[in-house]
């Protein structure tokens, strides 16, 4: 075997996704519905990021133990079963294998071997329990072992980041409470000259956060608790987006294929099927708008209908992401 072949075989063995065995280092209550959990582990020194060292809206999997059971050995599972590890895990006893939930890295500090994840403490609703991840976060204590599945920094720039504004210098960021960690991390990384609008709906005014953002980015916080009767999930967000981005204000209405959020995941990000429309006329590169929209799937579906059908948003410049579904647990 030549040295070159050995090197390329070693490179091929560097997995892009790995299990980080971590422990809860700190627990901080940010507001009534947000808890920041700092995980630490020497392994996190190799936590991945994009080519600039940022994590933006990077998603990871948080493995939550089933009550009374330790988590399976994910490092071994992923090592032994390679790309089939997820199917192998699914075949384990559902009573004891734990739960896999998707979260955003609020901040990664590989130099300090730490990661922050901001958990929304969503309440039980209409007889449905709060969910294993939110329940776990509610009572998390320092020293608890956990497993995070995330990008391997040794494998180069990571996958799992959807915020891709390209050359756009104007942004629209829209989300509910589950999107706050991603929006906060995105805003911290925007260039100072970027302008735009951020619209965020959270359960109550005490959940508003002081976010660091460029001076030209306006942040609008909406509280569902409000003054009168509580608003339904997404009601204020939908109204605020319609008031901010007017019908026909982009490229003009287009036909749209529907997404059944009960049957499939609403996850539409720019791809080859929807390349960005080349700027023309009064719209220059500098005025090109990029939108990033995430939250409860049915709410995002309505915003997608409005922004594509009525506003004429360039589908090559918008990411629509259903982060969770009302009344449905994340699948595993
Ligand atoms: C890419 C991505 C990034 C995400 N980042 C974050 C993040 O940083 N922080 C965060 O808190 N969440 C985040 N989420 C959302 C999170 O994955 C879901 O809220 C998840 O369902 C929580 O798991 P659970 O075990 O608590 O509830 P599940 O077991 O999945 O659900 C149990 C019940 O709770 C309901 N439910 C779930 N989430 C909520 C909610 N937020 N409000 C009200 N009811 C809810 C469900 O509809 C269901 O009825 C992200 C999701 C995605 C896809």
From TrEMBL:
Gene3D superfamilies: Nucleotide-binding domain of ferredoxin-NADP reductase (FNR) module, Translation factors
Name assigned to this protein: FAD-binding FR-type domain-containing protein
InterPro entries named in the record: FAD-bd_FR_type, FNR_nucleotide-bd, Riboflavin_synthase-like_b-brl, SIP_FAD-bd, SIP_fam, SIP_rossman_dom
Native organism: Psychromicrobium lacuslunae
Stored SUPFAM superfamilies: Riboflavin synthase domain-like (SSF63380)
Domain FAD-binding FR-type: 17-158
Record-level Gene Ontology MF annotations: oxidoreductase activity
């Amino acid at each position: 075997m030549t040295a070159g072949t050995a090197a390329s075989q070693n490179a091929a063995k560097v997995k892009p996704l790995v299990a980080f065995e971590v422990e809860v280092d700190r627990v901080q209550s940010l507001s009534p519905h947000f808890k920041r959990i700092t995980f630490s582990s020497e392994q996190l020194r190799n936590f991945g990021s994009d080519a600039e060292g940022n994590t933006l809206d990077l998603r990871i999997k948080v493995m939550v133990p089933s009550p009374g059971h330790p988590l399976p050995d994910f490092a071994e599972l992923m090592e032994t079963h390679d790309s089939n590890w997820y199917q192998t895990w699914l075949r384990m006893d559902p009573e004891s294998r734990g739960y896999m939930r998707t979260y955003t890295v609020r901040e990664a500090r590989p130099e300090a071997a730490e990661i922050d994840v901001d958990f929304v403490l969503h309440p039980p609703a209409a007889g449905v329990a709060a969910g294993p991840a939110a329940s776990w976060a509610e009572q998390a204590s320092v020293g608890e072992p956990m497993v995070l599945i995330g990008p391997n920094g040794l494998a180069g720039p990571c996958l799992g980041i959807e915020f891709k504004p390209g050359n756009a210098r104007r942004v629209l960021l829209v989300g509910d409470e589950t999107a706050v960690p991603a929006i906060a991390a995105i805003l911290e990384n925007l260039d100072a000259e970027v302008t735009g609008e951020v619209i965020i709906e959270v359960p109550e005014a005490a959940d508003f956060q002081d976010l660091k953002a460029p001076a030209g980015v306006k942040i609008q916080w909406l509280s569902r608790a409000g003054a009168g009767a509580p608003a339904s999930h997404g009601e204020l967000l939908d109204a605020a987006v319609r008031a901010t981005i007017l019908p026909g204000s982009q490229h003009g209405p287009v036909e749209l294929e529907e997404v059944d959020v009960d049957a499939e995941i609403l996850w539409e990000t720019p791809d080859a099927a929807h390349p960005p429309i080349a700027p023309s006329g009064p719209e220059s590169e500098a005025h090109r708008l990029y939108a990033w929209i995430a939250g409860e799937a049915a709410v995002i579906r309505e915003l997608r209908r409005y922004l594509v059908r009525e506003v004429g948003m360039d589908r090559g410049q918008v990411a629509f992401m259903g982060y969770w579904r009302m009344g449905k647990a994340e699948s595993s």
